Amino acid sequence: MIHAQHLTKIYGRFIATEDVSFKIARGEVACFLGPNGAGKSTTMKMLTGFLAPTSGSASIAGYDMSKDRVEGAKKLGYLPENGPLYPDMTPESLLAFFAELRHIPRKERKSRIESVVDLCELQSVFHRPIGRLSRGYRQRVGMAQALLHDPDVVILDEPTAGLDPNQIQHVRDAIKRIGLTKTVLLSTHILQEVRAVASRVVFVSDGRVVFDGGIEQFGKDADDFDIKFRELTKTKQNRYVNKI
After folding, report:
1. N or C: which end of the chain has fewer CB within 10 A?
2. Are strands 153-157 and 208-214 parallel, antiparallel or unpaired?
């Protein structure tokens, strides 16, 4: 459902990502893990078609996002880090607006909105201006918007960044519910996120994939995860194109 093939992105002489390759199968919940600045968000943007790779390709549900982005986007729900919302709107008006933009048939809009409101637990804030909501609720509104068209694939970039412990738990619970029926890839640098929601880890460091395997291969407990994280990030790679 998600296929990265030799994705490389270069800005000037700086190598943001280099030869990133992995596959996420239908029904998997995978974490794209790594330290800050490792290339996670750049890879996410290439996977979703928001950023063109220097080389390599990305596909969603079989659609090449460089060539068939419109069709691929129909299968994709994407929540970028700090995803844009309209603060003067309510969740009700925002979701109605996006339902129209996504050409969801009128007879299905009410049921689709009710479904994502229930999934993301937005009932108590449904009629409140988004600008007055907590960061945790705003994040859940963003997730609801990304899920509105019932995509097969969901990509979340740092979905719990900046949230307090209670808000983090609410978002984790939502991700678990989403993962029951969809393929999910979420990026994070927080080890607890991996243990809480994922069955698979793709670890990137200095723009390169340095680990790809099941959660049990990464470690059995928090101490194992911490040790593995440090091991995978202790060697620094050259991230600049050599001058000719």
Report:
1. C
2. unpaired
